[in-house]
Design goal:
By secondary structure, this protein is of the alpha/beta class. The chain has 15 helices and 11 strands. The protein has a single domain, classed as Glycosidases (TIM Barrel). 40% of the residues lie in helices and 16% in strands. The longest helix is centred in the middle third of the chain and has 24 residues, at 187-210. Bound molecules: 5-hydroxymethyl-3,4-dihydroxypiperidine (IFM).
Length: 440
């Protein structure tokens, strides 16, 4: 890695990120069933019919995993609490789950690692899925209660808290495109989920404000969305994708409302009186987490229902996910957020990383591509800072190879390899490259 820590501002934080369901092992510690447990049991939903029951067994191996974070020289760790572990029935606190997160947070502090918590990284308790999950406004209100339960226990030690991770995935990917739990393809369900996740964010922010929680925000995912051609139809398609993916959530938070290009299809399906929530949703946040992986090349596809979207495969090198590697899109996204939405609000890159198939390199973990990927995106972050963006952190996704949702364990994002038979951890060359760059 040619870049050095000293190329970044002195207080810039480097971290690694994970999420509870993807690493902990949901069968341990009296966690309740989550909608991902049951979605994974549906035919064809997850590659290899895999699930998060064992995952990386981080629930038992967390100390060694925190040692890996410390030993790489990371300043911070972005983790999530599992809603279904904390309140297995969606309501009643599970002492074993709370004890576990308490130990985990103390373990971070003992190692000099700053804890950055995400409250919802997709493990909805099945009891709430039973009442309609995110299609039911009640779920958003329960999220407020869950916020209090978690922060009563660990809120005093958090460097930062995010309400939700990637609400686009929670709402659109899961209720319109059907790829994630609950696997719906229903525009009415999607419209309701698109709004209720934002009500949940508002509810959680209000609970945090009431308790004086410091540094409260949200993590959103963004892509650089381009039309595949210069045609008016493809430009309009790219604008619709941009509205649904990039602008819906941040626009609402910044008091700009939901974008018209998205409402044109969703308005008839929105829950009653949704406009009345917009002022609450627009309450100030302290920081914004930005997840960035790739760009999209969009085209109109009239064989598909509204929003009539298709995409084309671009010419750039791709990760194991098939995503084009486009570091400059990160600079572009960050600069656009500053110019059009958040101004000087502190931002952190809360996820960026690549899945890479080690088997394609004859099993070696040389990991040259991942090192190049990281360096390219670090450079894009530096370019954004040079352009005046108030960016003060960067978390690599992910510390460990883990359960990549509908792709099961096939896609490997980790800087640490996990052997899913023995659960042995082996740092990859990218881990060592980051360590050489970060270790003080
Ligand atoms: O693994 C996911 C993560 O849970 C959310 N953001 C994208 C990652 C890679 O797909």
């Amino acid at each position: 890695m040619k870049l050095k820590r000293t190329d970044f501002p002195p207080d810039f934080r480097f971290g690694a990120a994970t999420a509870a369901y993807q690493i902990e092992g949901h069968s341990f510690g009296n966690a309740g069933p989550s909608h991902w447990d049951t979605f994974a049991k549906g035919p064809g939903n997850v590659v290899g019919a895999e699930d998060g029951a064992i995952a990386c067994d981080h629930y038992h191996r967390w100390e060694a995993d925190l040692d890996l974070i410390r030993d790489a020289g990371f300043d911070a760790y972005r983790f999530s609490t599992s809603w279904a572990r904390v309140t297995p029935d969606g309501r009643t606190p599970n002492p074993e789950g709370l004890d576990y997160y308490d130990r985990l947070v103390d373990g971070m502090l003992a190692r000099g690692i700053e804890p950055y918590l995400t409250l919802y990284h997709w493990d909805l308790p099945s009891a709430l899925a039973d009442i309609g999950g995110w299609t039911n406004r009640e779920t958003a209100l329960r999220f407020g209660d869950y916020t209090d339960v978690v922060l009563d226990r660990i809120g005093d030690r958090m460097a930062g808290v995010a309400t939700l991770n990637e609400p686009w995935c929670v709402a659109w990917l899961s209720h319109f495109l059907g790829h994630h739990a609950p696997g719906l393809r229903d525009i009415r369900a999607a419209a309701r989920a698109m709004h209720h996740v934002m009500v949940a964010h508002a509810e959680s922010m209000e609970r945090m404000r009431a308790r004086g929680q410091k540094n409260a925000g949200i993590v959103l995912n963004f892509e650089a969305s381009y039309p595949a051609t210069d045609s008016a139809a493809d430009k309009a398609a790219a604008a619709r994708q941009d509205a649904i993916f990039n602008r819906w959530f941040i626009g609402a938070i910044c008091g700009q409302g939901y974008p018209e290009e998205a409402l044109e299809g969703l308005r008839p399906h929105m829950p009653a009186c949704w406009e009345d929530d917009m002022a609450r949703i627009a309450a100030p946040i302290d920081w914004l987490g930005v997840n960035y992986y790739t760009r999209g090349l969009l085209k109109e596809d009239r064989s598909q229902p509204w929003p009539h979207l298709g995409s084309v495969t671009g010419p750039l090198d791709k990760t194991q996910m098939g995503w084009e590697i486009y570091p400059d899109g990160l600079r572009e996204v960050l600069c656009r957020l500053k110019d059009d939405f958040v101004g000087d609000l502190p931002m952190m890159v809360t996820e960026n990383g690549m899945a890479r198939d080690e088997s394609q390199s004859n099993g070696n973990m040389g990991d040259v591509e991942r090192i190049g990927f990281i360096e390219g995106h670090f450079q894009a972050a530096l370019d954004a800072i040079a352009a005046g963006v108030n960016l003060n952190g960067f978390f690599y996704w992910s510390l460990l190879d883990n359960f990549e949702w509908a792709f099961g364990f096939e896609k490997r994002f980790g800087i640490v390899h996990v052997d899913y038979q023995s659960l042995k951890r082996t740092p990859k060359a990218s881990y060592h490259a980051l360590k050489a760059m970060l270790y003080r």
